[in-house]
Amino acid sequence: MKCIDEIPASELKGKRVLVRNDFNLPLDAKGNVADVFRLKQGWKTIQYLSERGARVISISHIGREGDSIEPVAREMKKLGRVFFIPDIAGRVAQEAVATMKDGDIALLENVRRDAREKENEESFARELASLADIYVDDAFAAAHRTHASIAGVPKFLPSYAGFLMRDEVTNIDAARSPEHPSLAILGGAKFETKAPLIRLLLEKYDHLFITGALANDVFKARGLPVGRSLISKELPGEDILSNPHFLAPADVTVERPDGQVHVKKPEEVGAEDKIVDIGPATVAMLSTHIANAKFILWAGPTGMYENGYIHYTQGIAELIAKSDAKKVIGGGDTIAAIEATGVPQEKLGFLSTGGGAMLEYLLKGTLPGVEALQ
């Protein structure tokens, strides 16, 4: 997989470069971008190309198939000279690209507005490729999708990884072979989809701590009460529960139907309780493992942060921020939860833009978008 900086800068000037970004950014109630994390991470490649005289054509999906990506264009204009093209690969897009000058940056409309994108139809991939001389994939968070703009276009253009794609692969490769002692923290839900990854992490890491709704499955499998808590269709087996590398919460935060919140031991959870987070004894337990670790992987907040339960996620983040370990953090809502805690991101190591893509790469060591660049 070659990176875009392997092309001599002089050869980029005047070239039309199609950059597949993942600018699937959350919008607020007024239709404005609510979080710019992925935009800032992806901007580095766009800026690099623009500064070297390339004509940058950014393409991404956002939200549902029918949504417009124009709000992202408004946010991009705060970073540089960007104009929005309300078309994908039709006549309007072709004519707009033909008028671009060296250094210009254009954002095309939501690529998933064309149904051929998700079907990975060759005709659509060819139309996208016709817009450019070079293709750059910087959309790691979408690299687990076999879509036309990810897996199709590289068949028709010289193709390279952007800086974000390169850094994601490099850092997550390191997380697949961690330095010891190592600690992995895995949250989220749906044990049935996480089971293969859990087994892999138990092989590779000195300790794997299961949190979030996955911990509820652990309690249930051990015959402990879980009240009204979210439970997966499948529960962990004894091969996981009795693994010497496996760690589960020592205490939990529960919410009563009347909104009252209590910290309890797992065996004390009542029929009307809903487990919403870990507790202070669990943070204390993890503190030693975090302090001793030379490598830390963290994917998934400890509690239901979207409902305001971020106190213990913040506690974990603060401990990790003090650690000198190599750190890779991402997956699902982890970054959003950390942002809500206010812990400085620069102290948390590598922050991945990938949710499902990060977890799938950890498991398989490759993704369709990565293979397309090889």
From TrEMBL:
Q: Which InterPro entries match?
A: Phosphoglycerate_kinase (IPR001576), Phosphoglycerate_kinase_N (IPR015824), Phosphoglycerate_kinase_sf (IPR036043)
Query: Please, one GO biological process term?
Result: gluconeogenesis
Which family is it part of? Belongs to the phosphoglycerate kinase family.
Alphabetized GO MF terms: ADP binding; ATP binding; phosphoglycerate kinase activity
| Keyword ATP-binding appears in the UniProt entry | yes
Q: What is its EC number?
A: 2.7.2.3
Organism for this UniProt entry = Candidatus Kaiserbacteria bacterium RIFCSPHIGHO2_01_FULL_54_36b
UniProtKB keywords: ATP-binding, Kinase, Nucleotide-binding, Transferase
PANTHER family for this protein: PHOSPHOGLYCERATE KINASE, PHOSPHOGLYCERATE KINASE 1, CHLOROPLASTIC-RELATED
Spell out the reaction equation it catalyses: (2R)-3-phosphoglycerate + ATP = (2R)-3-phospho-glyceroyl phosphate + ADP
In which residues is (2R)-3-phosphoglycerate bound?
A: 38, 112, 145
By what name is this protein known? Phosphoglycerate kinase
**Top enzyme class:** transferase
